[in-house]
## 1
Amino acid sequence: MRPPTIHVSFPRPSLPVEVAALRHEIRELLEQERRAGTWQPGGKSWGEYNPALTRKIAERGWIGLTWPKKYGGKERTQLERYAVTEELLAAGAPAGAHWVADRQSGPLLLRFGTEEQRLRFLPPITRGEIYFCIGMSEPDSGSDLASIRSRAVKVDGGWRLSGTKIWTSWAHHCHYMITLCRTEPPSADRHAGMSQLIVDLHAQGVSIRPIRNLTGEHEFNEIVFDETFVADEDVVGEPGGGWHQVTSELAYERSGPERFLTNFHLLRRLVDGLGQGDRPASEHGLRELGRLAGEVWALRAMSLSVAGALERGETPAVEAALVKDLGTHFQQELPEAGRRLVDQEGIAEEALREELARATQLARAYTIQGGTTEILRGIIARGLKLR
Ligand SMILES: Cc1cc2nc3c(=O)[nH]c(=O)nc-3n(C[C@H](O)[C@H](O)[C@H](O)COP(=O)(O)OP(=O)(O)OC[C@H]3O[C@@H](n4cnc5c(N)ncnc54)[C@H](O)[C@@H]3O)c2cc1C
């Protein structure tokens, strides 16, 4: 029997006219703040933490841009938000302090939170005052999230949370973590009995321990909860409904341009460097740059299409998984291709060589964080009814 023909398409949305003016404003602010010394391109963009720049971005109203005005948002479109994130990434601006709250914790509260939670958390997020981190992975549960063992037990007025989370990016700088935990013992339905709690990371019974990444930097952490009290009003949605919520949260996490633009600045540096040394750019070098630029352009078209689908209220899970899979592989390929180019073309700039070496180390994580390549391919295969 012939397999069914399945189509995945990437229709290109037209960008609203307001986007061009918005891009201009963002570039202007970034340049102004770079000159003022608020930030320097550091190579990690949304993986780098800079509260001063976050506050400047907040003052312009670019955090929670699509959210209702009553929660501090600006009620602008998803495509305008896309332009903001794209500009920050393309410039390599350190936007990590507000990234998670803007991308997923805020939207999660908008969709599943209580009115009291929205009024309490969303306005300070839009002002760049409070930061959130993601509490999903545990020492023995990463891809198989349903196997988590952190547990909250009901007590008077709230819950007592115990367990360990791991790989939690920026927890040491964040105010809150949205924590997935069991609020009922495991049952035959593996996805039942989980809840999401908003945990104050400064509360009693929370220990945050650093884990160094491959470059030796302190970016992620192990967090231990020892009977930490979480009030009833800090449960997101209904107790027990955490699985449905966390899968929606993962869709926000996987769909953005950070999955192919995190190290875009390297491409820019290579374009600037080629032909600047003691030899002119070779035809091979120019072709290679053209190939890399072509890949970025195709990824961008696909990613914009996902943003357009989100704007129409659709859930493009297969398309988003495809963009993340292709995008993260591109981000791993870029420093490798860059190192070859630097050698072949005799680009002598030491700073660029060092940056390419660091980028090669950082790039290992891209096909793991936010869902591994194998897990994404499983989602794609299921979506295409091949599994
Ligand atoms: C830089 C970085 C930042 C991170 N930040 C956070 C964070 O802020 N918060 C958070 O909660 N987590 C975070 N993570 C954790 C990340 O989500 C997990 O590492 C990821 O989900 C994989 O889980 P694991 O490490 O337990 O690997 P495992 O799930 O044990 O996977 C090991 C290998 O087995 C493969 N595999 C597993 N299951 C299957 C399957 N069913 N089919 C085929 N292959 C399979 C995987 O693809 C992988 O290659 C971060 C990770 C990194 C690298």
## 2
Amino acid sequence: MGGLMHAFIQRFTVFASVVLLIALLPGCADYDGERVRQLITDDAVKALDAKIEVALITASDGKPRLKITESFVMWQDRVYVRFPNSFLRKERLYDRIENLTTRGEAKLYPYKNIESIKELVHKKGERVEFSYLYRPDDPINYNAEKESFSAPIIRDHYFQFIGQMAFIFPAGLEDTNENFSLTLSWAVPKDFTVFNSFGGRTTWQKLKLNCDKLRDALFVAGSNMRTTDIEVRGQPVTIAIEGRWPNIPDAEFNDVVGRLLNQQRKTWNDDNFPHFFVHFLAQPLSCKGGKFMGTAHTDSFRAVFPDSCKFEPEMKQLISHELMHMWIGKKIKVGRMQGHYDGKWFTEGWTDYFSRLLAYRAGVLSEDEYFGTLNRQLNKYYQTNEKSTTLRELVQRIYRRGISNRELEAVPYQQGEIMAWRLNKKIKEETSFKFSLDDVVRGMLKEVDYAGGVKNFTPEEIAMVVDGYGDNLFQEEMEKVVTGDVLIAPELPNCRASNKAIIMDPRHVSRTVLLYGERRHSCDRWMN
Ligand SMILES: [Zn+2]
């Protein structure tokens, strides 16, 4: 038994070191930069009549640029505009902007010492227009030209970006949910196909949306993408793939996306997706050296995987995770502090729990793959000293250069998934297997509907829903996250094989903890 155990540990350690996952949810209304308040009335928003044209051009240095031209109707003589700044790990994206010019008499002035904000001056009631070139690289902070998932990717035959990475916005729009009209046009080579959060295969779109939807939108265009249209529960989904994975046929990507969307929309009784866009980009990297990265956006999601990978279970889990954010993260929000870091145990942890579980139910992960990927997460959690970080300290340190680290950043994901498992087990036992944690999220989604489509839950409000399935289930779990107490994954009777699963005191971090071994009986009553 000792030898077998050792073999397991070795295998997990190897896996843990080669696979780095980034599955972050960029908050669309989370500004790292300075706030600038500028009231805009609902009538002014409606009268904005915004227009954006995106053109792909070649600059004199032979490199491609996006030429972006924006215009809107001034609602007062001076309007503060926000420039692209930080996205995930990139900062100062405005350094990539060049040749910023205004048309006619309009003028742009600096605003205090804040580089990401400028003051736009033009006659109230008149249309103001400005344009700029967007570089594929950052000439100031980076010597080597390097594509980043956190900045627009701009090539001769392809580009992708997120709204807030590239567009300049009137700052006043950040404080209103009112819709404005936007005409989007694309001046791209004839053989290009354009896709985005609002549809695709057209170079002209007339939209009604609010600022958050536009900032959070995904835009992709290119001449070599392979696209597939599938239908999920009667709704269209477009999958566009750029680049190739020799070991993964496109059909497998399409199959996984279709199964996951089907399972998730069924589980949450939600088919309100008139269109949905999924984008995969291959990165020429060894699977060992690369990272799996994905982000969720307005009615869409994107991922980048190294092209030498087989279809690893972790890649499928990442896809499921991002798709799951359409509910947890976009509709159900948690967290009051900057970046909603105080709610990540829920928005990332519960997302990991459901994405992994629903991938299993969808037949995308086998039972072995389910517990294999879960064990690798548990393993990392029990091995890191960061697991004892209090919630307050986590909020202060996470994603801060110099004081954050990957282990710390993974903790809320791990805490939340273990908490979810503990609660699911308790709810099943309290209700004789009639209900599960699924019902908690369905209950929260009902409250989301009452609230108009988005609701930011406090821990007390989550407790109200959870405790509907048993007395005081939630408080104990929340305490552990707040105080940095270790969450121990629950035993699952008839699921965990007794001779391979060893639960030790996780505070003794010198030894590996392996929680779920080979099953003796089906685990399904815990997982369905
Ligand atoms: Zn996430």
